[in-house]
């Protein structure tokens, strides 16, 4: 293997892991919300709020950790508004979710002008620093691919494992899944269906907000308009493809992260930019088409 090919492979795989992080967090959050019977169409808006407020928190405090916390809490509050509309007011979930995706960038644009003087790009802030793994970092190839990521990359796998355990191995997870399939039974047991759904929606907002914060503090050190760029919608395709399983969401995120890393690689090869930019979204359509076919076969088999 030539040194040039070796460099292409390692850089592509490393970029794949980086691109998968925001998608993974958002997809896990969406899976939690949908398991509770609340459609997670607002992920794009949650990620936008998380990306902006994490930069704002870092700007005001000088700490990336505080910024990350601010982004997660702001996205949780934003998700709470969506939950109030859908759970308490019984609003149509599809319309409300899409509405949150419209409100978020508009709100951020106004605050960008008020705080930073323009709506295109914020000031530079403290960002999350990469972590060099002490042992793996010294191993050829593995060190170049797995080492040098921010804490959120390593946290993603822990969050996915914890979400899977809670969802499938604990009473809380059983209640969560039951609310999504048969809320009347849960209510008959004396449990609050609304409380369980609120918790699921807020967790969804926290995780999607962390995904958005990774874009602005993990990959960059500023917020720019439209930096989420449809990743919230891709996350929807991911958790559907993963059948609402948090662990499978991570592996599906790696697939979509690979398409984004290939997109970046092809930009240096002179291909039309329109074709390159459509790759992640074409992959999303193919995945959703495949899911639809699988569901049809399953129904026919019954």
Give an account of the 3D structure.
- There is one protein chain.
- The chain is mainly alpha-helical and 302 residues long.
- 75% of the residues lie in helices and 0% in strands.
- It is built from 13 helices and no strands.
- Helix 3 runs antiparallel to helix 4 and helix 10 packs parallel to helix 13.
- The longest helix has 33 residues.
- It is globular, with a radius of gyration of 20 Å.
- The relative contact order is 0.19.
- The C terminus is likely disordered.
Task: Summarize this entry quickly.
This protein has 302 residues and is mainly α. The chain has helices at 3-35, 43-61, 64-88, 93-116, 142-146, 151-169, 171-181, 183-188, 193-218, 231-241, 246-266, 273-277, 279-301. It contains 13 helices and no strands.
Topology summary:
Elements: H1 3-35, H2 43-61, H3 64-88, H4 93-116, H5 142-146, H6 151-169, H7 171-181, H8 183-188, H9 193-218, H10 231-241, H11 246-266, H12 273-277, H13 279-301
């Amino acid at each position: 293997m030539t040194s040039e090919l070796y460099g292409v492979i390692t850089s592509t795989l490393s970029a794949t892991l980086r691109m998968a992080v925001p998608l993974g967090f958002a997809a896990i959050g969406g899976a939690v919300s949908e398991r509770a019977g609340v459609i997670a169409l607002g992920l794009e808006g949650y990620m936008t709020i998380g990306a902006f407020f994490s930069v704002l928190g870092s700007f005001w405090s000088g700490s990336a950790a505080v910024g990350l916390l601010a982004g997660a809490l702001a996205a949780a509050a934003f998700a709470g508004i969506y939950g109030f509309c859908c759970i308490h007011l019984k609003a149509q979930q599809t319309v409300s979710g899409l509405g949150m995706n419209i409100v978020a960038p508009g709100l951020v644009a106004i605050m960008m002008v008020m705080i930073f003087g323009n709506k295109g790009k914020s000031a530079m802030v403290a960002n999350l620093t990469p972590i060099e793994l002490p042992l793996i970092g010294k191993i050829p190839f593995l060190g170049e691919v797995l080492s040098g990521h921010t804490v959120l990359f390593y946290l993603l796998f822990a969050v996915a494992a914890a979400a899977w355990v809670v969802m499938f191995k604990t009473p809380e997870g059983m209640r969560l899944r039951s609310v999504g399939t048969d809320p009347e039974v849960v209510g008959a047991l004396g449990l609050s269906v609304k409380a369980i759904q609120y918790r699921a929606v807020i967790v969804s907002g926290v995780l999607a907000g962390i995904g958005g914060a990774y874009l602005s503090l993990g990959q960059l050190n500023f917020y720019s308009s439209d930096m989420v760029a449809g990743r919230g919608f891709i996350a929807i395709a991911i958790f559907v493809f993963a059948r609402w399983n948090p662990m499978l969401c991570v592996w599906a995120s790696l697939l979509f992260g690979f398409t984004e890393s290939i997109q970046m690689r092809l930009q240096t090869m002179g291909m039309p930019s329109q074709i390159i930019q459509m790759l992640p979204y074409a992959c999303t359509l193919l995945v959703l088409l495949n899911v639809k076919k699988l569901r049809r076969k399953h129904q026919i088999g019954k």
